[in-house]
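User: Show me a protein chain along with its predicted structure.
Assistant: Here is one chain, sequence first, then structure tokens.
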Amino acid sequence: MKSMGWTIKKYAVLMSGAVALVVIAWVGLLNDESFSQRFKKGGSGDRAPASGYPEVPEPSPQAAEAPEVIPLGTPVEVRSQNRRVKVDQSQVVNASGGDTFSIKVERSQVVNSLDSGDTFSGPVKAGDGKLVVVYLTFMNTGPSASTLPQTRFSLRDSQGRQYAEVYEGRVSVLKWLATQGLDSPVQRVLPGHSAQTAQVFRVAADASNLKLVVDDTLLAIQ
């Protein structure tokens, strides 16, 4: 009986020692910061999502950039006071007097000459190059009648060459516009009404891939 009692006491001492070691180890793990965080999260740690694929952060939204060349028929905003042009949802042209217009390119046409039929002014000829007519529509979106904004236009070809509007023979151009049922570039337009006119350019014979330029903005013409 004494032997059995001694054995029981010995096992009791061993068990109490083992329990003490477990408690010490457990306290040490709880003091470990990373283990403590995983324990508070229910042991999940930094496991991958249930799908088995790593999480990929969603890309931050970016503002849409204006196209390099504005498509044909797209209204654009022109600020004629400071000669700046940009595409805007308002689709408005600000004239120098504060009145507003929308403007868009309808189409373009290549011709050898423009003849109004007036024997006094004579036709406008292409010479060694070619004439390009760009048809435009202006809409008066302001509250009062106003003349069309006097915005300067030019054409740029694939080689970077730039061509101004035809100024010589201007009278012939204005008379030709009238024969085509088009309005003068200085037409006065009522609110809510539009005017259709055209700008004429003389370009080199080998000019190609032409774009209408309003300041730094390029507009498709065909």
